[in-house]
Design brief:
The chain is an alpha/beta fold. Helices cover 45% and strands 24% of the residues.
């Protein structure tokens, strides 16, 4: 099993080119990953990386080993998945580890699912982490995560991954309750604009809406937290354009005023991205809990 763990670390570093990134994806420290690589090189009696620069690059021996290592890791994951599914269908407890990621807005309901899974399957270790959608999609593809609740992107899921839609959230203008007028486009143009980070999928959707409506906003702040932006709106700092979170109650907040954009509303789709080779029971529980 030590060799398999070392191979898993080797694959993670080979794909990312970085000890730190690989360690984060497989939930280890960079020092532990480095030791596992050294152990693997000692076992095969050859170095696998070109060292000296900031990034780790495979040498000829490493490139030769990589497809075999990926195949062995994938076979092991498939074996664990089949074993877990058969155990679940037989009514026996599921064992092993299940790693799920989430965007911030879905953490609360997903946490309740995790608690339920741990209660129902005490021998199943479920870990929950929070990250950006683009990072979690890459982690699912690399095997660092088994599933993630995230914002759907434009590209198709990578090979070996499955996408299940959960719910959609329409873009709305959020302003302080004291702001007058019902023209959302005018409010966007006349007040300081609080923008969600455009490198993220939600930020790209916001930018698409602004371009579609040809609105020139007064750029003021760009943040990567929806709740932080909404709190600034409550404090009269400016207005924003964000998806109306399914698990928030902004429409009941006396400090907020929500306005719809003209025409069909642009929406972000939230769904579950999961590896096909992992246990089905945890994913089924997530889907059942988060779908309306």
């Amino acid at each position: 099993m030590n060799t398999l763990r070392n191979l898993r670390s080797f694959v993670a570093v080979a794909r990312s080119g970085s000890l730190a990134v690989a360690a984060d994806r497989i939930a280890l420290t960079a020092a532990a990953v480095s030791l596992q690589l050294r152990a693997l090189e000692a076992e095969f009696r050859r170095e696998l990386f070109l060292r000296g620069g900031r990034n780790l690059v495979l040498n000829d021996a490493g490139r030769e080993l990589l497809p075999w290592a990926e195949r062995l890791v994938a076979l092991h994951d498939e074996m664990r998945s089949i074993t877990s599914q058969r155990a679940a269908s037989a009514g026996t407890p599921i064992v092993g580890t299940y790693r799920v990621g989430s965007i911030v807005s879905a953490v609360a309901p997903l946490s309740r699912v995790v608690v339920g899974l741990k209660r129902e399957h005490p021998q199943l270790e479920v870990t929950l982490s929070v990250a950006r959608s683009i990072d979690m999609a890459a982690a699912c593809a690399s095997g660092a995560l088994d599933a993630a609740v995230l914002v759907r992107g434009d590209a198709r899921p990578a090979r070996g991954l499955a996408w299940t839609p959960l719910y959609s959230e329409a873009l709305v203008l959020a302003a302080h309750a004291g702001v007058r007028g019902r023209d959302a486009l005018r409010q966007l143009a006349e007040h300081p604009f609080l923008r969600f980070e455009r490198q993220q999928r939600t930020g790209a959707l916001v930018q698409r809406a602004l371009r579609q409506h040809r609105v020139k906003v007064q750029e003021f702040l760009e943040l990567n937290s929806i709740e932080a932006i909404v709190e600034l709106v409550r404090q009269r700092v400016g207005v924003t354009l964000l998806p109306q979170l399914a698990h928030a109650r902004w429409d009941e907040d006396p400090a907020l005023r929500l306005l719809s954009l003209p025409g069909p509303a642009l929406q972000r789709e939230i769904g579950l991205l999961q590896r096909r080779d992992r246990a089905a029971v945890p994913a089924q529980a997530i889907i059942a809990a988060l779908r309306p």
